[in-house]
Amino acid sequence: MAIKDTPEEWTVTATTTPFTGNKTSVRTDTVVMPDGSTVTRDYQVHPGSVAVLALDDEGRVLVLRQYRHPVRQKLWEIPAGLLDIPGENPLHAAQRELYEEAHVKAADWRVLTDVYTTPGGCDEAVRIFLARGLSEAEGERFEVSEEEADMELARVPHDELVRLVLAGELHNNCLVVGVLALTAAQGGEGLDALRPAGAPWPARPFEA
User: Which residue, 61, 91, 95, 192, has fewest beta-carbon neighbours within 10 Å?
Assistant: First the structure.
C-alpha cells in the first residue's frame, strides 16, 4: 500500500454556514458515513496561507514575535499570511509577506513542505517555502498595524530553533514544521533537491 494522502469526498446531504467572518467562516455539513448513518461536522472554512522559512548565509532563520489572541500568547513565528486572492500564485503571496513583515527579499525559493494545519476542524492548507539568498528590500518599509505594529524581528541559528522546538519553548505550527522540515532536508538529499517554488499544490490550485 502506498503511503500517500489521496483525495476523497463522502456524500454531504445538507450544508449550512452559521457564521461568516471577515476572512473565514464556519460550515456545518451533514455527512454520510460508510455504514450509511449520518453525522454533523462543523469546521472552519479558510482561504489558505503561505509561510516563509528565510535562511540567511550564516544559517540563521528570520523569525518574528507577535501577539496571538486566541491562545493569549506572544509567539515566535516565521513570516506568513493569507492567500487573500482566490487562485493567487502562492510564491507571489510568500514574497509579499516576506517584504511586508521583514522588509527582506530572497534570490532562491523552494517549496519546503505543504501541510493542513488542523484537518479535523479546519480546511486551512499552508505552503511553507524555503527562501535563501536574503537581502534588504528596496523602497519604503510596509506600514504595519494591529498585532503587527508590536512585532519584534530576530535572526536565530537554525540549530537553536530546533533545540527550542524540542524543549517545548516554541509552538507556532509553521515555525515548528518548517524548522524540522529544514533539518530533514539538510540530512537527506539536500536543499537543492526540494521542489521548485512553482510546484503544483492540489490543496490550493493556482496559475503559474
Answer: 192
